[in-house]
Amino acid sequence: MYYRNVAFQDLTPSVPHPVMLAQQIKKTPMNLACACIIRKSNQFHAADRFFLLEMGGKNHYTIPFIHEHVFSAVRRSTSKPLPMLCRPFWHFILKGFIEMTVTDLINKGINGQTLTPQEIEYLLSFPPHSAQSFQMMSAASDLARQLQNNEAEVHGQLALNLAPCPEECQFCSFAKSNKIFTKATEVPIDEAVAMAKQFEDAGCQAIGLMTTANFPFKKIAPYLTAIRQVVKKETPLIVNIGDQCADHAEELVQLGVNGVYHALRLREGIDTNIPPQQRRDSIEKFQKAGLQLGVCVEPLGPEHSDKEIAEMIYYTARLNPVFSGAARRIPIPGTRMGELGTIPEIRQAQVVAVTRLAMPHATIANCTHEPGVLPGMGGATFFWAEMGANPRDTIARTEEGRAHNVSKLETMFWELDWEIQRGPSRIWKV
Counting CB atoms within 10 angstroms of each CB, which of 32, 160, 223, 273 has the fewest? Predict the structure, then answer.
């Protein structure tokens, strides 16, 4: 890495936004030397970081990703060699400026101020192992502990059915084209009741029921009635079900359901057969009926850019969910998306941290999946135990495969120095 002086006019007093600043730089005579470009190679490219400093002033702006045509304009405008300040001096200025910017954005999140998509993208742009990333994780963990009184929760999710799914989510083992499961099965109601009770007796603060996307409401309703009669009335009942059930949102409430997990996934409509607007409409219907909403930024893979992750974090924050978080994709062997791999847990922890900082404080909880101590360092406050089918597993009973039981998850939280909330969930309101 080296530094190159570039001349351009100081526009910070008159231009309030980095994007506007970039547009203005393109058409403004470059005549004041007061900036540096952090270089990674000898060629200009769109991923170079560009910093504008107002020398001797209070304002400073950051353009994390600036278009290549702006770099070209800057380069063409510099017709004469510029006086070079000594590199240690510039390094000192830039190092302080970077740290100040990250700290300022972290403080915005801690104070409950809204982070813009550009600011979220900037936080995501640091290497997961960087000092700035660990600063974010530490701050997010502190904020998460304040919002949940340093008491983590473990929720239990059980699957009601298993079947090849026509919605064709390519990251899911249920997708018909992935050919992992070829036969449709349903869990007997008495067995589902027993699993729900097992979760509650093990200390779960909430019980979740999951189905494949096309499992009809008329089949779900009898399970809800039976389980609601057995678990404690103060134990929240959550569902993770298909879009077609959104038209029965009010009936779900009448059956004793308290909340729903329903996420607009990354690259919805591209990696799935589900139109993105359909997911948004379902979320609106569920919330309008009075169901509390849980969401997540998922399923994270190495192909997802900082920008699209940032936009998804920003979108979920605007929904005012009871929890958000981040989940990485678990590759399904032998599938197209399985070949793309996944992200490391340290990157997962970074996204968990940025998500926590970007959420409103009314969103008290932050989740990560699959659970782990390292992802939990980003400020995760609850994990999911699982029984039955699992869209990330290739065997029908995930408790015999990838899933963790309640005891194991409580141990993870102990490793992270959390206490465990005893009694009904504080995340979901009954």
Answer: 32
- Look at residue 123 and tell me if it is in a domain: no
Q: What is the number of other CB atoms lying within 10 angstroms of the CB of residue 37?
A: 19
Place of tokens 């169901």: 291
> In sequence order, what are the residues at sequence separation of 6 or more whose Cβ sits closer than 8 angstroms to the Cβ of residue 427?
148, 153, 205, 206, 236, 322, 323, 364, 365, 382
The three state secondary structure string of 134-194 is: HHHHHHHHHHHHHHCCCEEEEEEEEECEECCECCCCCCCCCEHHHCCCCCCEECCHHHHHH
Kindly state whether residues 68 and 150 are assigned to the same domain: no
430 found inside a domain: no
What interhelical angle do 68-77 and 18-26 show, nearest 10? Answer: 40
For residues 151 and 252, give the distance between their C-alpha atoms in angstroms, rounded to a whole number. 29
Asked whether the CA dihedral 184, 188, 192, 194 is positive or negative, the reply is negative
Q: Are 222 and 256 in contact (CB under 8 A)?
A: no
Give long-range contacts, CB 8 A cutoff, 24+ apart: 12-15. 12/52, 12/54, 12/57, 12/59, 12/60, 12/61, 13/54, 13/57, 13/59, 15/61
At 185-239, the pLDDT tens digits run 999 999 999 999 999 999 999 999 999 999 999 999 999 999 999 999 999 999 9
Output phi, psi for 386, to 5 deg.
-140, 145
Helix/strand/coil for 240: strand
Number of domains present in the structure of the chain: 2
Residue 288: other Cβ atoms inside 10 A:
11
Residues 362 and 253 reside in one and the same domain: yes
| CA gap 172, 425 in Å, rounded | 29
Distance CA 51, CA 405 (A): 48
**Residue owning tokens 């134990």:** 235
- Partner residues linked to 385 by β-bridges: 156
**Amino acid identity, residue 37?**
I
Pair (352, 226) in one structural domain: yes
Domain with 290, as residue range(s), is 136-420
The residue type at 301: G
Domain final residue, candidates 115, 150, 174:
115
Q: Quick one: 75 and 145 in the same domain?
A: no
User: What pTM did the predictor assign?
Assistant: 0.80
Task: List, for residues 10-36, the tens digit of each pLDDT value.
Answer: 333 343 344 333 444 433 333 222 333
Q: Within 237-344, where are the H helices?
A: 249-254, 276-288, 306-318
End-to-end CA distance of the chain: 55
